[in-house]
Amino acid sequence: IPAYQFKGNLQSELAAGRITKQEAIDLLEDMLMIRELEEMIVKLRSGAYDPIRDFNYRGPTHVSVGQEGTAAGSCSVLKLTDKLTSTHRGHGESLAKVNVAIRSMTDEQLKARLGGGATGSRAELLEHALEDHLYKFICELFGKDDGYCKGRGGSMHIADFSVGHLGANAIVGGGVPIATGAAMGLRYLHKNDVVLCYAGDGAYANGVVLESLNWAAQAQFTNDLADGHKFGLPIIFLICNNAYGMTHRTDDEVMGVAHLARRAAGFADNNMHAELVNGMDALAVRDAVSRAAALCRQGQGPVLLDVHTYRYWGHSLSDPRNEYRTKEEEAAWKAIDAVDSFKKQIIEAKVLTAAELEALEARVRDRNARAAKRAAAAADPPARDVIKYMYTDTKCETVPAEFAKVELLAPLPEIKRVNGELSYKDAIKEALVEEMARDKRVIFYGEDVADYGGAFKVTKGLLESFGRDRVFNTPISEACICGTAVGVAMVGLRPVIELMYMDFALMSSDQISNQAAKWHYMSGAQTEVPAVFRVSVGAGKGYGGQHSQTLESVFCHIPGLYVIYPATPADAKGLLKSSIRDNNPVMFVESQGLY
Fold first, then answer.
1. Average pLDDT over residues 180-188
2. What is the pTM (predicted TM-score) of this model?
3. In this structure, how many other beta carbons lie within 10 angstroms of the beta carbon of residue 48?
């Protein structure tokens, strides 16, 4: 496994043309903005942030001070349309992703983003947009209606879908299958974009994370099964490896590998191009992510990067740290601080003078203070709107022209009628066939659903008509099946997935209940999740307690999710078609006794 490949510095990168002076300044500014914002959060807890000393901040405090080089360096090479998923400790990459996107916008795009007839020079528009971004960001931290997510997400769920930030995630590892699904959707749409998926070292003991690695590396994306589209998933799994889960160490306590880059070897013969990266050097991270993104855009993804960094504070500010690590350890990491070392390089490379650097730092501080004051004074969401955004009331009435023309590889499956009537099973099949023939965005996947047609042969024949890009088998990974559906939906497709038995939905419950059902609400209606989770219920077959449960009442208690249980063939067909066209997540329950 390659380790610490980058041997250069700012001067050598400038000389090689791999970074410009302005890009170097922007990179430093992003690191400074992240640190200023998070040090503000730390000070707010003790009332020591002078601009809003009396403000009562009640949100989470999972700060990433110390990890700025990882966040800013990785985002610095992303395109406006590239995607990102983040974590509960995701302020850094959330700030940096939008900063980078803003700077890549045209003047017209900046004006459209700012609204209100924004005018001025490009420099003025950029400054206005950066402060507006910071204001919306801090508003979200404070639970304000002007926040990116209308105050519904808060610190651990910040998202800006308009520039490809698909959301931070409070469930450790919860965003990894979503990112994997987003990459699968981009592959299907033939977009030349990548997904940068952040997760901490602790997450790489999580089952759905390991399922996602296996999912992303499936041979069927690149071998002869790929229907002429041999293209690996364009995803970079970036491990923010600060060596700690909450308080436990992941390198010599709760895991059996010295380096998490080794995880990749268990899932891909090419080891996912894995390497170890110095996360305390923003240029090293920039270099590694740049190379990884190039591989992904060439169809050689996925890529795994084990980025070594360090959080100076504890898991949260209620964590004193001294119970599980020493002052000497902290001091050793602070001696190679990413921000301080890059400031030194900026001066040595004569990109900025000392006076210009001080002016930049002052501008960052003042911008943060102005945004914080505005955010503290901003309105809270009205109490009457507490359940606003729980569901969307939209549906797909008209298929966009680019998706309305569906290419068939063979005639549609013939569905038999007896005395003019469909069976329950064939009614479900006909609904799915009609919707797939109507809308190219509808894709279908699950365990053994392609060639075999599913355990109950409901979908036999779909593969031959629509091809493996739209109908394909999956690993036995129910959580990842459902989690990827969330990501697929977020990038514009309309997935229908099959779980063989409803009992297995309990294995997927986090992705259905905490992800699919909540993201419309938590994002402040920035995204919709039009995903259908088909599940079947065993009936009278003697299969015992793990293959016979009818759990619709459990999922009826999940806000943001629709649960459908049709009783007749007519209901089954009509309700499945309606479910596929609806822009809310739907659990579609089928009784095997009615097939």
1. 98
2. 0.97
3. 11
